[in-house]
Amino acid sequence: MILQIPSTSVPIQEIPIQKNVKLFIKREDLIHPQISGNKFWKLFYNINNYLEQNSKKPYLITFGGAYSNHISAVSAVGKQAGIPTLGIIRGEELADKWKYNPTLFFAFKNGMNLKFVTREEYRNKEKLSEFLQQEFPNALVVPEGGTNEGAVEGIKMMLNNQTKDFDYLCTAVGTGGTIAGISKFCEENQKVIGFKVVDDDSLENKIFGLTLKKNFNLIDSSFGGYGKIKDENIQFINDFKENYNIPLEPIYTGKMMQKVLELIDEGYFPENSKILCFHTGGLQGIEGANLLLEKQNRKLII
Ligand SMILES: Cc1ncc(COP(=O)(O)O)c(C=O)c1O
Fold it and tell me: Catalytic positions (predicted)?
């Protein structure tokens, strides 16, 4: 097996907030240095099962944006397994400047072949995916963000005896696979909250289709839109790092934690609730974000 279950589970740390609820964070970001957080678990069955059945000429193909944590993780899997990978990247304008993008350069160093497509072509990625599968019948074509039924099964591994203790389970939501797995496999009495960083009305149905449970709520946490980083987000992430020595990134986990604390202040959670947030990794994105932010004299502490 290329992706192995670690012998020790990641820590659950308390965030000492002095409020009428208790807040904790489960550090899935510590699971693997390069295939971190939910990416590890979303790829776990997809990759292991595929490689078990396709020992001859395996090939991994996937999709993502310029700073995609998923592209970064799949390229690292390819390097670790010694198999070729192809990344279909949104934005043809990146074709002549990808070397200055830390995520894409990292993927390239891991041996990933990068193919840049227009936003229009990228929107039709389901068609593109079918086409690639026909052209490379033996390849594993992993959808954007890695979200599929295999991913949902893998997310089950983020839950254990310790996570059963919590009233609320919180995660950032992009393509929906992570929250679907938490919702599907958590305890009956637990409530799941998804912090949506993308404005996508189809997410609720998509997640329901994967979990078939109604135990989750989605809360808008986009702070102005996917990938938008406001001064208040930077301040929050930098303060969080300084106060608790836990790094967050600006696209998913930073926005989730900021919104969770806002909800706590607004009294959203009943008194004495125990809240668990999943740190889903993605810290590789900070370097790329800082290259953009530094031009505006802003910076995230790594
Ligand atoms: C760091 C991080 N957190 C959360 C998510 C959201 O996960 P999902 O796409 O399964 O909703 C992603 C995207 O994969 C991510 O990279």
Answer: 68 (nucleophile)
- What residues in the chain have per-residue pLDDT under 70? none
Ligand 1 center to residue 173 CA distance, Å? 6
Model pLDDT, residue 119: 97
Q: Catalytic residue at 273?
A: no
Question: What is the structure's pLDDT at 193?
Answer: 98
DSSP line for 164-229: GG-SEEEEEESSSHHHHHHHHHS-TT-EEEEEE-S--TTHHHHHHHHH----EEEEE--TTSTT--
> Which residues have CB under 6 Å of ligand 1?
37-38, 69-70, 145, 147, 172-179, 252-253, 280-282
Say whether pTM exceeds 0.85: yes
Pick the CATH number of 39-142 from 2.160.10.10, 3.40.50.1100, 3.40.50.720, 3.40.50.2300: 3.40.50.1100
Q: Distance from the CA of 145 to the center of ligand 1, in angstroms?
A: 7
Q: Domain 12-33+157-296, what architecture?
A: 3-Layer(aba) Sandwich (3.40)
> Could you state, in order of their start, the residue ranges of all structural domains in the chain?
12-33+157-296, 39-142
